[in-house]
Prior knowledge:
By secondary structure, this protein is α+β, with helices and mostly antiparallel strands. The chain has helices spanning 5-15, 17-28, 30-51, 62-70, 73-96, 102-116, 120-132, 136-155, 161-243, 247-279, 295-304, 322-342, 384-395, and strands at residues 308-315, 347-354, 358-365, 399-404, 410-417.
Amino acid sequence: MFYGEGEEGRLRAAFGNGPVQVWKWWWERRHRIGDWFVAVCAFPWTALFDIAPSGGLATGSTAAMALATALPFPLQVAAGLVLGLVIPAGVSVLLVLRRSRPEWLLAVSAALLLLLGNPVPAMLALYTYASWFNDRRRLATWTAVTVVAGGAAFAVSDAPKTASVFFLLTGVALPLTLGLWVGTRRQLIGNLRERAERLEREQYLMADRAINAERTRIAREMHDVVAHRVSMMVLQAGGLEVNASDERTAEVAGLIRTTGREALGELREILGVLRDSADGSGPAPTAPQPVLADLGRLVGEWHTAGMNVVWSTRGRVRPLPAQVERTAYRVVQEALTNAGRHAPGARVQVRVDYGESDLEVAVANEPPPPRTGGAPEPPMGGGYGLAGLHERVALADGTLTAGPYPDGGWQVRAVLPLRQDETPSGEEGDR
């Protein structure tokens, strides 16, 4: 193709799909269409040079003309039909096949030049071979055959000498020069296109190497910083659980230790995905991701941590597409984390509504109770949680809304469409 995928996309945006498809169809068949066009246009010129009273450039072969005039009238009519219809039609057929069977056209054109002084097929044959084929020895041989045939036709005719010079210039030199120029240009363009494609592939490889290097760097930094901190948190929570003076403190420390160990396991899986993707040595791990069936465990963990969470489900509970379930779980997880951070002690309602065409997930918390004098300020978040949720929900073609209530509460609500062609999460092979 003469244009790339990006150019094709711009053409589609500008002119629509129909004109682009027509243009692609024509471009892929342009050479065959050109062969038919040349064959049709050459037919009348071949017939004209065959049946003209004065013959071709060499004014015809004297022997052929004498033989034609000596024949009876019916045979002269038949000879005229052969010269005016059959031979031009045969030449047109050979012009359609000129790029697959060039020798046939060269041989017939040399015979017509010798017998009838017709230079049209010879000119087209020399141009075709010079522009489409690289065998210069055969080209020189057929050029010599054409010159000899033309010279013989001029020798037996009464044409002036200037006509022979004109034939050599227009019938041999011009098509050869034009054909060699077109062939060289086509070969040069092909080499440039191949070089551009090779450079593009090398650019993709370099970009892929850069991506792999960046993934390796991210995995290394996450391991050196995040994994180390989480490991310290788990160890300290384990020590607090063992040395706690009361049962409530030991229970909370145990929850912190369990949560930290789960986070460390998920972090190791993410590091494995990054490193395996960067190395390309094996498939990435496909451990099960949390789905709606894991909401009970998530709500139970927050209950254990002291949060008043009310969980309700409406509609026909059924397996949903894996992406929808994972997205819904992450929405609830992030909303509960924000409620625990910004509204500690407030009552939180989690509602999951199974619709026929969509899944609605809403997490709403009441206004936080007033803090006592010694209560610490809630930690400020970085603001990336909701931004990440927006991106995750957008990937599932859903909508996410988050905002405060007039009384000071807060709600996070996501609506995820359900498509019939997606596979339910229970039927995935990686679960």
